[in-house]
Write a structure and sequence with these properties.
single chain; mainly alpha
């Protein structure tokens, strides 16, 4: 619901929904869902031009990716959120370093194309 409200630019309601969802998910404990919820939270904060809270949400998502087992979709979504945040902050050097690191891996497999499609898509269904 928070994603939909964000799409409709009802950012206060979107923030309320994702915050409530995160609070209710504490008993669920599924890392993938938390990662995706934090990415939604970051997206809302970015839409509100609140980069510090967006950064905090992305860092929480990435922390879960690194410490808990998550599906590749959640991992790629967290990585794309980090790159989108860098771009929103104007940190083109970090985004360029990420792109260069992905190109190095693209010779051995097709992950670069997959990851760049995650990054360049305007909205991703989960």
């Amino acid at each position: 619901m928070a994603d939909l409200l964000c799409e409709r630019n009802d950012l206060d309601a979107a923030l309320a929904h994702v915050t409530q969802g995160l609070a209710l998910m504490s008993w669920w404990g599924k890392a993938d869902d938390f990662v995706l919820a934090y990415i939604t939270l970051a997206r809302i904060h970015l839409a509100q031009a609140n980069t510090s809270d967006a950064l905090e949400a992305v860092e929480k998502a990435l922390g879960l990716v690194q410490t808990r087992g998550v599906f590749s979709e959640a991992r790629h979504a967290a990585e794309a959120a980090r790159v989108r945040l860098w771009l929103a902050q104007g940190d083109l050097q970090a985004a360029a370093r990420w792109a260069a690191s992905q190109q190095e891996h693209s010779a051995s497999d097709d992950r670069f194309r997959l990851k760049t499609s995650w990054l360049t898509s305007p909205r991703r269904e989960y």
